[in-house]
Amino acid sequence: MQWFEVSTYTAPPEAPASINDDLDIQSSAAVVLRDVEKSQEHFAGYHGVLIACYSVHPLVTKLASSTHASGHGSLAPGTAAKPPLVIGIFEASILTAMSLLSTDLRGGSGNARWGIVTTGRFWEAHLERGVEAFLGVQGKTSKFAGVQSTGLDAGDFHTVDPGQVRDKLTEATRRLLGSGEVGCVVMGCAGMAGLEGIIRDAAVDMYGKERGRRVAIVDGVKAGIFQLELAVKSRRMFES
Predict the structure, then answer these.
(1) DSSP β-bridge partners for residue 147
(2) Contact at 8 Å (CB) between 219 and 195?
(3) Could you tell me which residue, 127 or 102, shows the higher pLDDT?
């Protein structure tokens, strides 16, 4: 039974329509921060905030800092207010992928890795550096298979011919799967939601029916919601 409610927020029109590079990332962060700071009570009543851009997005740390500094949080009956937890779909997908690679959970050899299929070439280096920073390592880890790009922008997944989208996403997925034993593929763009079937078909084609169906496919937005729910419950259980 779902105990939480999800509210959505979309950046104002002056924000980039599609985030395709570092300039877009920084611009979107500035626009959103200016907008949410107009209301001192913007986050009142919320336990968590999910940044639904698949990137190392500065809003994750900046919103977390601003809500803690201001003291705006969520009130539960008889308790003090706590600022909402903030996570991005990028960070949430890493946590989810790592948990799915447990030998016991996946029934694999224990050597399976995870990787990301994303949009443009810019994201390959950006996301690889982000994974390294988040995990506190340098270079690819034994569990991280890297990032493969489709050459499409985020907006293209809604406007480009579906056949071209399928071909580009299939090619990127096959490159990732061909790098070794990949047990989890993360969709590195919120705009890829609903395209899991293309990745699944590529996995079955590359690995065979049985093994291909065991490959986990992670939607960052879903992973973010689940990780926020877990974090809120963990805060209640483990913090004073």
Answers:
(1) 116
(2) no
(3) 127
Q: What is the CA radius of gyration of the chain?
A: 19
Strand pairing partners for 114? 144, 184
How many CA within 13 A on the CB side of residue 184? 28
State the pTM of this model: 0.89
Residues 144, 133: Cα–Cα separation, whole Å: 13
Closest CA to 54 of 195, 159, 151, 153: 153
Under 8 Å between Cβ of 19 and 122: no
Least confident range from 55-69, 75-89, 117-131: namely: 75-89
Domains of the chain, first to last: 27-89+224-238 (no CATH), 90-221 (3.40.50.12500)
Sole residue written with tokens 């790592």: 98
- Say yes or no to pLDDT of 108 above 80: no
In 31-167, the DSSP E strands lie at 48-51, 85-88, 113-118, 144-149
Q: What are phi and psi of 9, to 5 degrees?
A: -135, 135
**Would you state the structure tokens that stand for residue 46, as one six-digit string?**
């919320």
